[in-house]
Design brief:
Elements: H1 2-20, E1 34-44, E2 47-63, E3 66-77, H2 79-82, E4 87-95, E5 101-110, E6 113-122, E7 128-135, E8 141-148, H3 155-162, E9 175-181, E10 186-200, E11 206-218, E12 221-231, E13 238-245, E14 248-258, E15 267-268
Antiparallel strand pairs: 1-2, 1-14, 2-3, 3-4, 4-5, 5-6, 6-7, 7-8, 9-10, 10-11, 11-12, 11-15, 12-13, 13-14
Signal peptide: 1-21
Pfam family, one: DUF3108
Organism: Prevotella illustrans
Length: 269
Amino acid sequence: MKQIRSWAIALLVMLTGNAAAQCSFRNTAFSSGEFLSYNLYYNWKFVWVKAGFASMSTVQSRYNGMPAYRASLTTRGNNKVDDFFILRDTLLCYNTLDLAPLYYRKGAHEGSRYTVDEVFYTYPNGNCHVRQHRQHSNGTHSWEQHSYTDCIYDMMSIFLRARSFNPEGWKKGNTVNFPIADGNGRTPACLVYNGKKVVKADDNNKYRCLHLSYTELDDGKYKRIVDFYVTDDNNHVPVRLDMFLKFGSAKAFLVGMKGLRNPVKSLVK
C-alpha cells in the first residue's frame, strides 16, 4: 500500500507540474528561509504615527504532497491605533518551485469587518481553473469557480513572481498587465514602473530602489493600491511600501532582512 501511495503522489506531482508549467516563471530573487520585517506607520489627521509592524517569510514546504514555496505576510496594528482603526491582516500562499500559484488565503480584520478570501488553483487540460471562496463580514459564505485559458494570480503570487522580473531596459511608464483573483472575482491589474529612487529604510541604511505602482481596475479606472520601492539588485526586496487604504494611507519601512539569496548591491554608502 505504501508503494501504491508513493506512485499516486508521484503521478499527481508530475501531472500538476506539467499542467502548471504554462503559468511558471524562473525564480532569481529569493530562496527558502528569507525573512523580512517592517515598521508600519499610519496617517492620522495629517500626522504619521508609528502604529505596528509587518513581516514576510518564505520557506520551502509541501502542498498536496508536492514541493512548494510557502509565503506568508502579516500586518499588525498596535494598541495605539486600535481605537481608531483595527488592522490585523494575514496573507498566505503556496506556489510551485517555479512560481505557479497553487493556493491563496487572506484573513482581514480591518475596522469592524472580518473577511476571509481563498483561491484554489488547478491546471486541467492546459487551462487555469480557480475555485474561489469568501467568508463575508456577516459570517455568510460564497463560492464560485472558473476556468481560463490564460494564467491568473493573487496578490501574493504576483508579488513573488514580480520579484524576478528583469527591469533592464525598462523606461518610466513601462506596464506589466495581469488578471488578479480574490475570493469572489477576477480583476484586471497592472504594475507600472516609475523609475528609480534612493529610499532610507528603518534599518538606517539607504538603498537604490525601483519604484513600482500596483493598480487595479475599479469602476472603469485604474486605482492605485500600493507603491513598492524594491532594491535595485537581484533580490528586489521591498524597502518601502505606500498603501492607499479605505480609511486613509499607511506606509511600511524595512527594519531587517535575513536569508537573502543574492548580495545586496543596492546599498548606498
